[in-house]
Specification:
Layout lengths: L11 H28 L12 H10 L7 H20 L8
Helix pairs in contact: 1-2
Amino acid sequence: MDNIIKFPTTTEKEYVDGTKLAKEAFTKMKTTEENLNWRLNFKDWHDYKLSEIDVEVVALFGEHMKLTPVVAARLNTLLAEFLCKIKYADPLDEYY
């Protein structure tokens, strides 16, 4: 994680709160990165269901995550399936 710059007009509380939030986000990103690199290397990777947190973290920090080429390709496949399910899902299906 890079250093966080404290601007002259930033109060100490704002700086501490911002630093804490940045560290939490970085930890969440690294955890998701490690989990995806581990889980998507198995032969049954296509059975893995992306969690809402996985999708959110990839959306926010995907370009900063270090994923192996195979994992990145498999993640693309899972995200495409996820998008297709959203696009073609009938919102009334859950009521039938």
